[in-house]
């Protein structure tokens, strides 16, 4: 286990955040700002992040494949949050993620930072059977042995995925789910809790490698999601399992190439079989505070 001092340090430094225009990076930036910290957002296009600049965030332009630009963006910070972009239909061999992961690693090695928090996923410790979560395993493997103190934040299934269920629930009183059976409870977490943990961890001092496993205050089933939507929307909502034999055709209808749907299916089957879950053991297991109902309410307010 790493040596760690959980007392927040008091340096008035700045923290760099990748993915600030997305759910997790944005949540991390908000949590840091609320704690009175300075934030540097790493973006590909400053014009698309002007709202953050108005909140006092310093913006640094860097393509995620450009290790030299990332090094400049990381330099002089008290710590950074790094991630790879989510690809739901990656090319065979994961060339997109491999390129980003290598660029991030090169930049981190050159910057020699006090602390690094990297976004990963539940199940990333598994050597196979992960589907698209394999991208997080690749990221962890690429950052292995990093000289800087580093923490891999393995997040559960995102509660924020419920945003796709709101329209059909509101209009038809029904949501389609790939998670089955309907009463099985899965680890889930809100992006707000992920962001809060990123900010909190960046404010700690430790040595070596940490693995943080994060889920919400309870586990939830598809039936629980339907009930939460019922309460929030004020109408009866039921969950319906999408038959396994229809998955490929449905993903292709949504725009996924026919030869790239298999990895998404493998991930879903991993959750349904229980293969994709937390590692446990010497990892740090943390529970957030936001319930599924509260997460859905925040999605509707947005």
Task: Describe this structure as you would to a colleague.
Helix 1 packs across helix 7 and helix 8 packs across helix 11. The protein is globular and about 50 Å long. The protein is built from eleven helices and 14 strands. About 2% of the residues have low confidence. The protein has a domain of 197 residues: Rossmann fold (3-Layer(aba) Sandwich).
Note the main attributes of this structure:
8-stranded parallel sheet; alpha/beta; 11 helices; 37% helix; Rossmann fold; 302 residues
What topology does this entry show?
Elements (H helix, E strand, L loop, with lengths): L3 E2 L8 E5 L4 H12 L3 E6 L6 H5 L3 E4 L5 H8 L4 E4 L12 H17 L4 E6 L12 H10 L6 E6 L1 E2 L7 H7 L1 E4 L10 E2 L1 H12 L2 E2 L2 E7 L6 H12 L4 E4 L5 H7 L8 H12 L10 E4 L4 H10 L1
Helix pairs in contact: 1-7, 3-4, 4-5, 8-11
Short synopsis of the structure:
The protein contains eleven helices and 14 strands.
- Supply the CATH class of the domain at 4-159 and 189-217 and 277-288: Alpha Beta
CATH topology (fold) name of the domain at 4-159 and 189-217 and 277-288: Rossmann fold
End-to-end distance, in Å? 40 Å
Strand order of the largest sheet: 4-3-2-5-6-7-12-14
